[in-house]
Amino acid sequence: MTGIEPGGSVPAEVDVLIVGAGISGIGTAYHLKTKRPSTTFAIVEARDALGGTWDLFRYPGVRSDSDLHTLGYEFKPWRKKHAYAGGSEILGYLHETVDEHRLAPYLHFGHRVVDASFSSETGRWTVTLLRVSDDTTFSVTCRFFFSATGYYDYDEGYSPEFDGSDDFRGTIVHPQHWPEDLDCSGKRVVVIGSGATAVTLIPGLAGVAEHVTMLQRSPSYVLGWPKENKVANALRRALPTPAADRVIRSLSIRLLHEMYRTSRRAPNVFRRLLRHRMTSVLPDDYPVDVHFNPSYDPWDQRLCVATDSDLFHAIADGDASVVTDRIVRFTPTGIALESGRELEADIIVTATGLNMVPFGRVALDVDGVPVDWHECITYKASMLTGIPNFVFAFGYANYSWTLKVDLTGHYLCRLLDHMDSRGYDVVTPVCDDPTVGGGPFWDLTSNYLRRSADVFPTSGADGPWSMEQNYYLDRKRLRRDPVDEPALRFTSVAETVDSSIPGDRREPPPRVPEQRSSLPQRR
User: Fold this and answer.
1) Which residue among 94, 225, 259, 261 is least crowded, i.e. fewest CB within 10 A of its CB?
2) What phi and psi values does residue 328 have, to the nearest 5 degrees?
3) What is the pLDDT of residues 376-400, one digit of tens each?
4) pLDDT per residue over 217-250, tens digit each?
5) Confidence at residue 289, expressed as pLDDT on a 0 to 100 scale
6) pLDDT in tens, 77-109
7) What is the DSSP secondary structure assignment for residue 382, as one 8-state letter?
8) Is 252 exposed, middle or buried (0-12, 13-18, 19+ CB in 10 A)?
9) Do 54 and 94 meet the contact criterion of CB atoms below 8 Å apart?
10) How much is the pLDDT for 499?
11) Reduced 3-state DSSP string for 208-265
């Protein structure tokens, strides 16, 4: 991994301010730099390093639960042997991306966005930044505000209050803040939770700890899946590199799409697939129905992936076990359960989820009126009603996150092309139908999503207002459908000023042919 030398001071004025230097922010920066070379932009990041999730999470076994043929960027294909990668490999991939495309000068670490205010009179955002190193604030302005902050609180993971936690004589840790010096060798470890973190952490500890127990209140679906994509590797041997890149990515996306569609249309068929893949590894008498047969359908909550069935192998080898029960309280030596059993532990890991926060907790206002995120409706899963010149990247639950990032980056450039070619300064999604909205931002029933539903925007059932879990539909509406649609209100600053003058009825700017993104853009 190469060292990244970030840019100097944050520019006082840019066309696009990208908030967040994770996988979303870096991908968006690439699209702006290559498709709109005359557009000025900066990336501000509150932490002191790039990578987002892949720099923050450092627990043993941290890895992707999506294949890198789709989690990787379209413009930088993943060409390693294994389709799934550990956190350090993904972080290295992001550093390579920054190096190869010379994005480091646009990075500004240690700058947290406090608030942002949009002025219709100027058509620009004024953004307050906090410089973390000396706790000073200053303002910058931008034409577009791009949120690449993800969806959870980086400062604190979700950990419920457990009775007796102060009595426990061992170590309690949350995976989001894993201590570098925590030694689990020879220790009895209990991991509370059965989501993606637990499913990746437990194999990482198995064989190191004396024993690892996954303590779950109710089962989750876990899919055992090969770490290596042998079809992809065969295609690499058979085809020229550019052709192999395209075919592998296309096939990988299609596989994800068809698996998800099958799980929703024929859930019992998908259940049998999941069961077959786990029972082929687990002992014959293992109580699968107790520990791995949820009451809900597949993909009602996010599906977990165990690469090379590593979780099931750890159980079969006796290095790990699963207990399905409810916690009564922590004790000095472990955890007391409703069944009357006590799990002895030296280390308790609370893999109990994330704290969901919308758009990095940034306070926005438009012409002095504060933005209530929950009152906004999503537009093409990339903009919000009532908020001008605001675009966000928010990935999929059932596909790789980055697939949506690439689409949103394309859309941002198309939107800017359209506005520049017609002399527009401001674009705002507007929904005139009062019956639209109220739907979920993410259509899953996971507890960490339900806890925060009332602070996130809502969605519509269909049309541009829906938050689709469908890459092909989003590809059509973000990359192919016309930019100029009835739900978008385009204006120029001159129009805004003129409209405040009584009797002034000037015509809007004439429409001219749209420029191609490869041409210099009118500023």
Assistant:
1) 261
2) -90, -50
3) 999 999 999 999 999 999 999 888 9
4) 999 999 999 999 999 999 999 999 999 999 999 9
5) 95
6) 999 999 999 999 999 999 999 999 999 999 999
7) T
8) buried
9) yes
10) 53
11) CCCEEEEEECCCCCEEEECCECHHHHHHHHHCCHHHHHHHHHHHHHHHHHHHHHHHHH
Q: The tokens of 266 are what?
A: 């024929």
Gap between the Cα atoms of 495 and 507, Å rounded: 9
Helix boundaries (H) for 240-350: 241-265, 267-279, 288-291, 310-316
The helix (run of H) or strand (run of E) holding residue 128 is strand 124-131
Rounded to 5 degrees, φ, ψ at 373 are -55, -40
- What is the C-alpha to C-alpha distance for residues 486 and 462, in angstroms, rounded to an integer? 15
pTM of the complete model beyond 0.85: yes
Q: Give CA 39 to chain center in angstroms.
A: 25
Pairwise CA distance, residues 245 & 267, whole Å: 32
Instruction: In whole angstroms, give the CA distance from residue 326 to residue 218.
Output: 9
Taken as a whole, the chain contains a residue count of 523
Residue 134 CA, distance from chain mean position: 30
Distance CA 378, CA 386 (A): 10
In Å, how far are 365, 376, 417, 425, 470 from 459, measured between CA atoms?
21, 8, 27, 26, 15
β-strand partners of 76: none
Q: CB within 8 A of 57, min separation 6: which ones?
A: 87, 175, 176, 178
Q: Which residues pair with 79 in a beta bridge?
A: none
